[in-house]
Amino acid sequence: MQATITIPATSANLGPGFDCLGLALSLYQTVTFTTREEAGLLITTTGEDAHKIPTDESNLVFEAANRLFARFGQRPSGLHIHQDNQIPIGSGLGSSSSAVLAGLFGANALLGKPLLRAQILQEATNLEGHPDNVAPAVYGGLILGVQAPDGLLVERISVPPLRVVVVLPDFHLPTAEARAALPQQVSLQDAIFNASRLGLLIRALETAAYDKIRAAMQDRLHQPYRLPLVPGLSAAYEAAYAAGAAGVALSGAGPSLIAFAPAGHEVIGEAMTAVFAAHQLPSRTWILAVDTQGSRVDIDN
Ligand code: HSE
Question: 244 with 214: CB under 8 angstroms?
């Protein structure tokens, strides 16, 4: 039996939506699970950062899959997991969420689909700690995820076809470090600042009101503490606006930046790249669309 799982990259936060808003992007991790006669686990990897991905039982895809195998008391005796990855690791584009979801969807397929999509999302959210990457990776599009007392509430916000520029500087910024830089308490003023902008941002993206996105993407809860962690990040953020971006945000915990614009994506990308180069940091650029499908599962018996 073979199950092929395709999971999109995601950009979390989008400025004011810290830990609750995320957008699925047209960059993918594809993982194939194949049961085989020969007992034991074989993990192979290709694509982006393939050499950094563990091929033993500490592999994130396998760890997530194994949780479901353990819960249902069934694990294939022979299993080949092949990870073909387009999502750079540690970039702020949801690579770890995509691995966790691939593991959960893959195991669920091999087990005969005991879990519904919403249950997989809840499981992945428990593992990741917040829903802002996993929810859009599951459903596609722009998603607001709220952890309510009775479970996760997920709201999909329809957006017109948007294109974004993502620029990733070659700088190691672990998520744990980017979270450790944040204060534990914020002022009432800052809380109001973010709440008002999050409402505006959702409406502005929904209606492609590009003239409002700049004001709406401002944030006071995480970006002011994180932008200084990477050389050139604040200057690249400003350069994107100077080059015509309608909105710019740190993607997830960084270090990549995401810029929204109706046109001129190449120029905006080049402006950010030039700033990183001036800080001796090579960078890479993607011009991406919004993924609207979310996680895909193809089963071949
Ligand atoms: N919302 C998370 C953060 C995304 O900004 O830390 C990264 O896991």
Answer: no
